[in-house]
Amino acid sequence: MLRHGQTYAGHPTCCAAANAALDIYRDEDVIARGRTLEGPLAEALAPLAASPVVADIRSGLGFLAAVEIVDEVFERDPLFVYRWQHSCRELGLLVRPLGRGVAVSPPLICEAEDIEFLGERIAAGLDRAAAAVAV
Q1: d(Cα 84, Cα 99) in Å, to the nearest integer?
Q2: Number of domains in the chain
Q3: What is the CATH number of the domain that holds 87?
Q4: pLDDT classification of 8: cutoffs 50, 70, 90
Q5: What is the b/e burial string over 62-90, where b = at least 16 CB atoms within 10 angstroms of the residue's CB?
Q6: Cα dihedral sign, 54-56-62-64
Q7: In a domain, 63, yes or no
Q8: Do the Cβ atoms of 75 and 66 come closer than 8 Å?
Q9: Lowest mean pLDDT: which of 7-11, 96-100, 125-129?
Q10: For residues 86 and 50, what is the distance between their CA atoms, to the nearest angstrom?
Q11: Residue 92 falls within a domain, yes or no?
Q12: Is 114 exposed, middle or buried (CB count within 10 Å of its CB: 0-12, 13-18, 19+)?
């Protein structure tokens, strides 16, 4: 019997790369940077709360966030989240569809203008998706 495993699992080269990445996290204080970016991300997404399509915005714990749509929209169009994802992609923003919403996990090298871009494009993508299904 042959054992299945990934070619990179426990490989010395991959372990060296992982150790180098951990050194960068420590030396460049990357975790602290993520903590400083979580507030601006939450602020960039806050205007979405005014949308009748949005049920909840989850942010403020690390440099990631999610936006959930209201039940009525999901029940009316179970593919709405994927329409939203597609609209965002057309606008140059990658989001991850998750259940009844989308999530973002930007890279820790983001600057203020990148976070502003994210907020604008996720809102524009939401507007496009809502218009497509006449919400």
Answers
A1: 12
A2: 1
A3: 3.90.1150.10
A4: low
A5: ebbbbbbbbeebbeebeebbebbbbbbee
A6: negative
A7: yes
A8: no
A9: 7-11
A10: 22
A11: yes
A12: middle
Q: Containing domain of residue 56, as a range?
A: 31-132
Query: DSSP string of 9-44?
Result: TT-HHHHHHHHHHHHHHHHTTHHHHHHHHHHHHHHH
What sections of 1-135 are H helices per DSSP?
12-27, 30-45, 71-76, 80-90, 112-132
- Res 3: pLDDT: 56
Token pair in block for residue 118: 């994210």
- CA dist list (Å): 128 to 13, 23, 39, 66: 45, 42, 26, 18
| Residue 17 CA to its chain's centroid (Å) | 25
In a domain, 19, yes or no: no
pTM of the model: 0.82
Six token digits for residue 63: 């440099």
User: Is 97 within the bounds of a domain?
Assistant: yes
Q: Shortest CA distance to 130 belongs to which of 77, 91, 92?
A: 77
Compare 62 and 49 and report the one with higher pLDDT. 49
